[in-house]
Amino acid sequence: MERKEYKLCGFKEYLKDKIITIGLLIFAIITIEIFLMIYPVGSFIKIYIPIVIAFMYIIRNFSRVFCEKKILSKTI
Fold first, then answer.
1. Please, what is the end-to-end C-alpha distance for the chain in angstroms?
2. Angle at 16 between CA 12 and CA 19, to 5 degrees
3. How far is CA 26 from CA 21, 36, 37, 54, 60, in A?
4. pLDDT tens digits, the chain, 76 residues: what are they?
5. How far apart are CA 50 and CA 72, in angstroms?
6. CB atoms within 10 A of CB 61
7. Residues whose CB is less than 8 angstroms from the CB of residue 33 and which lie 6 or more positions away in sequence, other chains included
8. 15 to each of 9, 10, 34, 38, how far by Cα in Å?
9. DSSP secondary structure string, the chain?
């Protein structure tokens, strides 16, 4: 059975990726809020949507960290 080599990205690449991702999330939240300003939507919904987007981003990061730990522990 052949072992796969996993390449770890450098800190600069990691930081660049995170900055781009957070920038896209902020852009998405602002865009959604602008679209919601047009329609008569309750303020609860306007607050709830950015919270859900941020919560999903946090969950994705935690799951990604745990998956990477599993993969790295298997390869070492």
1. 15
2. 140
3. 9, 15, 17, 9, 16
4. 555 555 666 778 778 888 888 898 889 888 888 888 888 877 777 788 888 888 888 888 888 777 777 766 776 6
5. 33
6. 12
7. 46, 49, 50
8. 10, 9, 29, 36
9. -PPPP-PPPPHHHHHHHHHHHHHHHHHHHHHHHHHHHHS---HHHHHHHHHHHHHHHHHHHHHHHHHHHHHHHHH-
Locate tokens 């969950």: which residue?
A: 59
- In the block, which residue shows the tokens 């959604």? 32
Cα–Cα distance between 33 and 14 in angstroms, integer? 29
